[in-house]
Design brief:
With about 750 residues, the chain is an alpha+beta fold. It is about 15% helix and about 30% strand.
């Protein structure tokens, strides 16, 4: 489907805040100390043999009768003192890790593994063309290539590094070829900021056209024809607007190539069409299919997967006020769709937690009268893709994605085989091209791209993703389940060397995410071998909050049930210890972004269970997440501070407020990027300061700050290798065999 998916479900984005403290139940907060009132005793103090000490300036909030003290609220303002303190933390962390003497060896090995073979991130098909986003060995950034056939040589059409400027790195955030592939719309952002500028490149010549559109963060361009496209654009904020308004009131515009973007007219979005109920925090998108007389407008409501869908006849798109007609609301449970003629094929989980596929006549858009193409079963339907010959649908069975084909002449689902062991990590289709390109991945085998043609029951291999020269011959993956505190059996993946001794001394790195219904499925990363080849273990906890068992599994770790995510992670950690894979002294946990709810909660609840923890660009101060630009869009996943029920939800998962003075905490490495538009760097800063001032153990608490990167989207290969080398050096120091 060609729509923006819940801000890529990436709105686990909790970025910076300069708004005053919010207080509920009508009791005011104690005012924070302003920078002008600082004395020499109150500024962040550098320490000769330790990180700079953060001053405590208590701010008192009262939420529905409960007083909450926040000693580091001052970090939420962009002051020179805050920046200086972050630089001091970064300097101390750099010095500490460098003095270990192992970091360079880790970096060299990771870099060698990363550059052993070309890395291919994504592919897209058009008639006679295959586009791909790739990084050649030695290239630091991913660039855009095109081929004329599966076996044809590739040609670069967008050299990402040419967009870098003033020492800032550049990245392609998104790219969409036109219907015939003659043009590609793409977004470029700098230093991981994700604040993309939209450009258009001519495929034949590689010439970047003069059409340039700013404020195009995840613009989700969708081509109407070979000369025009729709795109979402953020509004230009008035001066001194609150940070929480940065991504509100978005609109979709129609751009004709060669015209001034200032003259583009809005076709959909907030306040565009009178009578359309478009909330200011909804994310609008417009798409069109050549085989359908309709255009489709969708609204994503924060991070919830269910959409609102509107349709309009294409012939009406030229007007200033498009007569959009609402056909489905979120209560219909539709999460994905494709259009063909006057029908859509839609995945819905209404009255079907594991989802079903329906064929719906848009002239009578009634789910009760829709044709069921794939009924609900033990398999979980995830995604649809429209090809010339059939609809392709991915489904999840026991954590492994498979592919189903629905030929249009029968509308009957039939299984297809990739011919490979592993999971269908992604697939690409086009309405004018029969078949699909399918990416298959596994924990211990390099990814492969296979071609599935019309009528074929088995795919054939392609050379677009060359086999990695990094061999995991001595590495295996073991799939088990761990019993959580309420008896729920939680899937746990354990990747390790075949000759691993079960003696409880193996350094083990346990990962988890478990939010938004995302599935942490099998994947292959050659740099993982740097850790595994030493006899160390990598494990993945598939906790509730993810989508491994459908929407019920997601709801089991969402809103009021979110603490289950933390308890499931603890259960997986306990399993690894109980089964003698490792011991607490050799066990580390890790969570990234929303996954930091998981690791942060585990550390404050069970600090005795871990020798170390890594919190990456994470949400740890849940009570304050609504104060940042993307925070309000996440309330459907975590709750809102505006209600007593929501406060209780957020309080129960706020790791920052769970830190207790004098407790024995494990070693902790926190990482952040100062251009992060999703999770504010002060979330990691506040957590680091509180742990540093509270722990009674002799274990280090280090804050790693990258001033040239953000949340991870757009991070260069070198930046990633540097962070991973720091992480592995830290973990080897803290949980390695002595």
């Amino acid at each position: 489907m060609r729509r923006q998916t819940s801000v890529f479900l990436a709105a686990f984005a909790l970025a910076g805040c300069d708004s005053p403290a919010r207080v509920y139940a009508a009791k005011p907060a104690s005012p924070p100390v302003t920078p002008s009132a600082l004395t020499s005793e109150m500024v962040a103090v550098p320490v000769k043999n330790g990180p700079p000490i953060a001053p405590m300036r208590d701010v008192r909030d009262e939420y529905f009768g409960k007083a909450v003290i926040d000693p580091y609220r001052w970090m939420e303002t962009d002051t020179e003192e805050y920046t200086t303190w972050m630089k001091g933390q970064a300097h101390f962390t750099r010095k500490t890790i460098d003095e270990l003497g192992t970091r360079q060896a880790w970096f060299d090995r990771i870099t060698a593994l990363d550059n052993a073979s070309p890395r291919v991130r994504a592919v897209a098909q058009r008639v006679g063309m295959i586009f791909s986003l790739e990084a050649e060995p030695g290239n630091d950034a991913y660039s855009l290539y095109v081929r004329t056939a599966l076996g044809a040589p590739k040609r670069m059409i967008v050299d990402t590094q040419k967009f870098a400027e003033d020492g800032k790195t550049a990245a392609i955030d998104y790219w969409v070829p036109s219907p015939k592939g003659t043009l590609v719309a793409f977004g470029i952002s700098l230093s991981g900021s994700e604040m993309a500028v939209l450009h258009v490149v001519e495929t034949k010549t590689g010439t970047v056209l003069p059409d340039v559109i700013d404020r195009a963060r995840y613009a989700n361009p969708s081509w109407l024809d070979e000369g025009s496209f729709f795109y979402k654009r953020d509004r230009k904020l008035p001066a001194n607007a609150p940070a929480t308004e940065r991504f509100t009131k978005a609109r979709v515009y129609h751009h004709v190539l060669g015209t001034d973007p200032k003259r583009d007219f809005a076709t959909f979005g907030y306040g565009v069409v009178e009578g359309l109920d478009v909330e200011e925090d909804a994310f609008p998108a417009v798409s069109a299919y050549e085989n359908s007389p309709y255009a489709f407008a969708t609204l994503n409501h924060g991070v919830q997967p269910e959409i609102t869908l509107y349709v309009a006849r294409k012939r009406t798109l030229g007007g200033v006020r498009v007569p959009w007609r609402k056909v489905f609301e979120p209560r219909e449970g539709i999460t994905d769709f494709e259009a063909r003629g006057t029908h859509i094929y839609a995945i819905t989980h209404k009255n079907a937690p594991r989802a079903k596929l329906l064929r719906i006549n848009l002239t009578i858009p009634d789910l009760s009268k829709a044709e069921t193409i794939i009924p609900e079963s033990d398999a979980i339907l995830k995604q649809t893709g429209l090809a010339k010959d059939a609809l392709y649908v991915s489904k999840l069975e026991a954590g492994i994605r498979k592919l189903v084909r629905v030929p249009f002449h029968t509308n009957k689902a039939e299984a297809v085989e990739t011919g490979l062991a592993g999971t269908v990590a992604a697939f690409s289709t086009n309405e004018h091209v029969p078949g699909a390109l399918v990416r298959v991945e596994a924990w211990t085998a390099s990814p492969k791209l296979v071609a599935l043609h019309a009528g074929m029951k088995r795919a054939r291999p392609t050379s677009i993703i060359p086999p990695s020269s990094v061999a995991f011959d001595n590495i295996i993956a073991t799939e088990v389940t761990a019993k959580s505190s309420d008896g729920t059996m939680v899937p746990l993946s354990i990747i390790h060397r075949k000759d691993l001794p079960r003696d409880g001394t193996n350094p083990t790195y346990l990962h988890g995410y478990a939010s938004y219904g995302n599935v942490h499925g099998p994947y292959f990363d050659p740099t993982d071998l740097a850790w595994l080849e030493k006899g160390h273990i990598t494990a993945v906890c598939h906790a509730r909050g993810g989508g491994e068992y459908g929407e019920d599994w997601h709801r089991g770790g969402k809103l009021g049930t979110k603490p289950n995510t933390i308890l499931d992670f603890v259960a997986c950690a306990e399993y690894l210890v109980r089964e003698n894979f490792t011991s607490p002294a050799h066990l580390a946990g890790q969570g990234t972004s929303a996954g930091s709810i998981l690791i942060g909660g585990a550390v404050v609840r069970r600090p005795d269970l871990f020798g170390a923890a890594v919190m990456r660009v994470g949400m740890v101060n849940a009570l304050r997440f609504e104060q940042i630009p993307i925070g309000p869009f996440n309330t459907s996943e975590f709750g809102t501070i505006k209600t007593k029920e929501g406060f209780d939800m957020l309080w129960n998962i706020d790791a920052y407020h769970g830190v207790v003075k004098g407790k024995l905490y494990p070693a902790v490495l926190l990482t952040t990027g100062m251009t992060d538009p999703r999770v504010s760097p002060w979330q990691m800063g506040k957590m680091a300061a509180r742990l540093q001032s509270s722990t009674s153990s002799d274990k280090p608490v280090l804050l790693r700050v990258d001033f040239g990167s953000g949340h991870g989207i757009g991070t260069t290969k070198t930046q990633r290798a540097e962070e991973l080398a720091d992480t592995y050096a830290f973990l080897e120091w803290q949980i390695g065999k002595k």
